[in-house]
Amino acid sequence: MEPFQRYRDVVDDFEAFIDACERSLSMAVRVNTLKATPEQVERAFDEAGIGYERADWHPHVVRVETDTPGVTWPSIHGWVHGQEEVSAIPASVLAPEPGDRVLDACAAPGSKATQLAAEMQDEGTLVANDNNLGRLSALRFNCERLGVTNVAVTNRDARNFSLKPFAAEDEHEGPQFDRVLVDAPCSCEGTIRKNPDALDGWSEDHVAGIAGVQKGILRRAIQVTRDGGHVVYSTCTFAPEENEAVLDHVLQKEDCRLVDYDLALEHDDGLTGWRDTEFDPQVAKAKRVYPHQNDTGGFFTAKLEVSA
Amino acid sequence: MSENDGQRFDRLPATAADREVDGRATREAVVDWWENRFGIPAETFDDHTFWEKGAGKIWIFAGDAPSPIAIEGLGMTFLRTRQEHWKPTTDAVQRFGRLATKNVFELTDEQAERFVDGQDQEIPYDGDWGYVIAAHEIAGDREPIGVGLYVYGELKSTVPKGRQRSV
Predict the structure, then answer these.
(1) Is the pTM above the cut of 0.95?
(2) What's the pLDDT band for B1 if we cut at 50, 70, 90?
(3) Among partner residues B48, B73, B138, which is closest to A140 by beta-carbon distance?
(4) ipTM exceeds 0.85, yes or no
(5) A236 in active site
(6) How far apart are the CA of A226 and the nearest CA of chain B, in angstroms?
């Protein structure tokens, strides 16, 4: 927990924050509405004698009283997907609609991609990209298990994601996206309750290195989004260098702005400064979820609109 | 006739008259197969396109894309067509098998648990031999689990290793 000492002055009730980070996390699943309703899932868990509690902030997130939700019938049928509760935030904020053209820029292993497909009701096109070929098999496995048919899987570095494969015969590039999710690779500080070794190897140099990649990915995401379209940027880390500083950089470089959104979880606003650096005041529209606020993992989410 | 290119997806020809790759299944044949084998109405797939990547590996995609397209995945693997007997995938049966009206094996709880664990079992059945949909009742409805092969009085589980579970 040593790396978290630098957040002493930005987190309210720092002791409660540290206490929560030291507790393990209860299991949660997301109901896959392409295959089942929450009521069907609850009835199936009743039949299996497994206790559960629906999250009050999201109609499809269910906390389950089993360590192995993957060996239950609802999981075998693809009715549910084991997913940390806060990981359901970014797809809900992006809120794609049926028929949209959507990109998940860093999609493996597919928890958020499959949630996006469910929100789209499997209509429209979801391009699920990841630069790691090894992780693409997990992405495809999860998409197929959950019954997704509107996904096109690509293997590119998201910093130079190409629209060319989707170009019609007489076009140079394929169409831009209505919505893009950048759930960026990050230092994963907020997963400490699930992965106790998440902070092994942590250093400010490592954070700085990842932040450079994140800036490149978010800039490219904005470039491939149509005017008026939306981009959600999220990480599972607390480091301002990977969160508000990335937004601040992209606000300067690309034609976009941060927008408000609703989130029915207790949270803090984005930080408008860190150490000696002040950020564009718009970054306050981002939301930070700390583990002690809702007894979840940690998360950061911002919503951007691409300007006309 | 050209050969199948395993590095890209090609949209299936609508009918045999449109075929450019030797031996490639047609959209018409694929849709007919699901209707004949399982009674799933052809119009179920009106909003989907069908693609081949890798010889005989048919994928189902919601909507359309330029053909050919060289990417890693396009929709869901749906059907294997290069053997004499066509074989549906577990994922396709789970997604579309609720609509089946024939060649469905309704399993008891114990049979369903053995099936999803990958075990073969002897079960009397008076329907056709061949690939069947294994299903069971859950939450008040019949729900498909996966693909079985019924031969010589035995239901063989073809649930892939990665999908097998000991419930």
Answers:
(1) yes
(2) low
(3) B73
(4) yes
(5) yes
(6) 19
